[in-house]
Amino acid sequence: MIQGDVTDRNQLIRATAGVDVIMHVASIVDVFGRIPEATMQNVNVQGAHHVIEACVANGIRRCVYTSSMEVVGPNSRREHFVRGNEESSYNTLHEIPYTQTKAAAEKIILEANGIQVSGGGRLASCALRPTGIYGEGCALLRGIYRKALKLGGRLFRFGPRTVQSGRVYVGNVAWMHVLAARGLKEKPGLVGGQVYYCSDGSPDKSHMDFNMELLGPCGVRLIGQERPVLPYIFIYILAAMAELLQLVLRPFCTFAPYLNRYTLALASTTFTVCTDKATRHFSYRPLYSWEQSKERTVQWLLSLPQADQEGKRC
User: Fold this and answer.
1) Phi, psi of 305, deg, nearest 5
2) 232-249 vs 261-268: helix axis angle to the nearest 10?
3) What is the pTM of this model?
4) Which residues are catalytic?
5) In a designed cystine with 293, which of 73, 93, 148, 169 is the match (CB 3.0 to 4.6 A)?
């Protein structure tokens, strides 16, 4: 175990000496505007360059990149993507630094497929595009749960129930990485240079309804069962006002509310995918069922308040 910095090229080259495969999962994920754009460019984009340079310097012939469905969509126009695959067309619009930098990093990794590395071999690289990842350790889910507890165990619907969003358990994402790495070794001509959507048997539901699958057993209640508490246009105005306030306060403090126009688009646009390409190319099947994934996540959530109290006592 080596703790390092993906933005430090020489450190990364030293850390990866003698390895067979790199699984590049180091990225800043921020859709709320908490992190400066320059930092995201440095970590997400320049970090990807450094990973490829490490592969070349150390003769590493396999690289799996953790990309995201958000390099494709959903877009701010609320154009739906229903059970699409890697060949499906979509009007991709990158309007925030996170999606811009993830798309740029994915391109760097894929364009490096086939380049010569030290020792005479060639690099085989691919990218995985998980849908919304959940599971133990999920900072976003933990934040929503804590927010609900502060509101007396309640959440308020702000996206339509008819919208469906793909979700995937973190253990199945990890398993797909393992299978993709094997595929790059056994079938580099087939898997190299390819992108793969990553999902599992988790139900396609709205963000709010899926979160309630996990938070409901923890005692959280949803206000606005069938429709948002407020009309969409009013919520959109609130999101725009929150962004304006964020811009005004930026020189003085970090103000990053959960609601902005991008997160509203995420909650208001159907985006679900198929994983048949990964099944065909390297025999991907989810390692954990939906029932197992849900149980593991709920048990982790239930442990959080107790862990917080223990932390305060320490």
Assistant:
1) -60, -40
2) 150
3) 0.91
4) 98
5) 169
